[in-house]
TrEMBL record:
Residues 9-58 form the Galactokinase N-terminal domain. It comes from Rhodococcus aetherivorans. Its EC number is 2.7.1.6. The lineage of its organism: Bacteria, Bacillati, Actinomycetota, Actinomycetes, Mycobacteriales. This is Galactokinase. PROSITE patterns: GALACTOKINASE, GHMP_KINASES_ATP. Residues 278-353 form the GHMP kinase C-terminal domain. The keyword ATP-binding applies.
C-alpha cells in the first residue's frame, strides 16, 4: 500500500533506520445515522479504502517525536500534558498516548502519511487516532481482538473529547477500528453492540459517490458542540437519559422550545431512518436507500441546521442529475456529501455538481467512490 510505504519512508528520512511496524486505519463515510451517536442512537458507517498510516518505533528515554508529511512535527516529554501544549494534528496522537497510557511506555517515534482528505468530514482525525492506538496496542501487549478494539475506540474517543476538545460521539473511532470489507457497521451507540451488515451496491449497478466540497469543517468549533448540548437539554426536559428512549415524534410535543423540538425531531427520525436502511440492505434492495438519504438531508438542513451552501449545492445538483438520493455527511458546516447513483450516471452527477459549484462561485469539489473497506490493521 502506497500510504504505508510513504509513512515508512518519512520515518527513515526523519528518524533514521526502520520502524518496528506500520499500521493503518481508514477514513469513513456514514451511510446514515448522523448526529445521533452522542444521543445513544444507531449509526451505519462504512470504512473507506483511504487510510492514515503510522510508522512507529519505541523509545526508552521518555521522549515522543512525531512527524507527518506536509505538517509541522512535534516533540515532547511524557509528563507534558497533551492538551494545549501540542497543536494541530499532533494533539490527536498525544491524546491517544495519554489516554491509553500503555504499560511500560517510555517514548515513541511516529511518522504519519495519509490519503484521507483532511477537513472533508471523512474522519481523518479518527483514522489518525486509530492507526496510532492499534500500533501502541500491538507493541505494548494490549488486547486487539474485537473487544480490545472496542476498548481502543473508546480510548480514542476520550482522547478527542478530553485532549483535543472535540465533542465527538465515538462512531468514527468505532468504524475505524472495527470496520470490515464489504460490510457497513451497524453501531448501537447506547450499548456499544455492533453488527456487520453486507452492502453490495455494485451487483445492483449502483455506486456511492462522495463529494468533498472543499469547504473544511472543524468539530472543535462552537456550532457542533451547541448541537450536542441542544440534544442533551432536550433529553433532560423530556426526563429521559437519552433521546434513544423516545419512540415517536409525537412524544416531542412536550418540548415547548421550538429549537429543541426540531433538534430532537431530527434525532428521533434519523434513528428510524437507520433502521429502514438496515432493512433495505438485509432485503438486498439498496435502491430503497435513496429516499432515506433525501429525508436525512432535509432533516439535517432544516431541523438540525448543520448544512451549508456548499453541501446544499452538491446535494441539489446530484439529485437534479439523476442521483437516487443524496445527503450531507459528517458533522456538517462544510465537509462532504454522498450521492447514491446508478454506476452509469456517476460521471454525469459529478459534472453537474462541479458545474453548480462553479456557477455559485464555490470551491471546486473533489470526488471519490465509497467502497466498504477493512478497519485498522498492520500493513508491514
Amino acid at each position: 500500500m502506497k500510504v504505508c510505504a510513504a509513512a515508512a519512508a518519512e520515518f527513515a528520512r526523519e528518524f533514521g533506520g526502520v520502524p518496528e511496524g506500520v499500521w493503518c486505519a481508514p477514513g469513513r463515510v456514514n451511510l446514515i445515522g448522523e448526529h445521533v451517536d452522542y444521543a445513544g442512537g444507531l449509526c451505519l458507517p462504512l470504512a473507506l479504502p483511504q487510510v492514515t498510516a503510522a510508522a512507529v518505533r519505541r523509545r526508552d528515554d521518555g521522549t515522543v517525536r512525531l512527524v507527518s508529511e506536509g505538517f509541522a512535527g512535534a516533540s515532547f516529554g511524557l509528563l507534558q500534558p497533551p492538551k494545549g501544549r501540542t497543536g494541530g494534528w499532533a494533539a490527536y496522537v498525544a491524546g491517544v498516548i495519554h489516554t491509553l497510557d500503555p504499560p511500560g511506555f517510555a517514548g515513541v517515534d511516529v511518522a504519519i502519511a495519509s490519503d484521507v482528505p483532511v477537513g472533508a468530514g471523512l474522519s481523518s482525525s479518527a483514522a489518525l487516532e486509530a492507526a496510532v492506538a492499534l500500533a501502541l496496542a500491538e507493541l505494548y501487549g494490549l488486547p486487539v481482538d474485537d473487544a480490545g478494539r472496542a476498548a481502543l475506540a473508546a480510548a480514542c474517543t476520550r482522547a478527542e473529547n478530553d485532549c483535543v476538545g472535540a465533542p465527538t460521539g465515538g462512531m468514527d473511532q468505532q468504524i475505524a477500528l472495527r470496520g470490515r470489507a464489504g460490510r457497513a457497521l451497524l453501531l448501537d451507540c447506547a450499548t456499544g453492540a455492533v453488527e456487520h451488515i453486507p452492502i453490495d451496491l455494485e451487483s445492483h449497478g449502483l455506486a456511492l459517490l462522495v463529494v468533498d466540497t472543499d469547504a473544511p469543517h472543524r468539530l472543535v468549533d462552537g456550532p457542533y458542540g451547541q448541537r450536542r448540548r441542544d440534544v442533551e437539554e432536550a433529553a433532560r426536559r423530556l426526563g429521559v437519559t437519552s433521546l434513544r428512549e423516545v419512540d415517536t415524534v409525537a412524544a416531542l410535543d412536550a418540548l415547548t422550545d421550538p429549537v429543541l423540538r426540531r433538534r430532537a425531531g431530527h434525532v428521533v427520525t434519523e434513528i428510524a431512518r437507520v433502521r429502514a436502511a438496515v432493512a433495505a440492505l438485509r432485503d438486498d434492495a439498496p435502491d430503497r436507500l435513496g429516499p432515506l438519504l433525501d429525508a436525512a438531508h432535509r432533516s439535517l438542513r432544516d431541523d438540525f441546521e448543520v448544512s451549508s451552501v456548499e453541501l446544499d449545492s452538491a446535494v441539489d445538483a446530484a439529485r437534479a442529475a439523476g442521483a437516487l438520493g443524496a445527503r450531507m455527511v459528517g458533522g456538517g458546516f462544510g465537509g462532504s456529501a454522498i450521492a447514491l447513483c446508478r454506476a452509469t450516471d456517476v460521471a454525469a452527477v459529478a459534472e453537474a455538481v462541479t458545474v453548480a459549484a462553479r456557477e455559485r462561485d464555490l470551491p471546486r469539489p473533489k470526488f471519490l467512490r465509497a467502497v466498504a473497506a477493512a478497519g485498522a490493521r498492520r500493513c508491514s
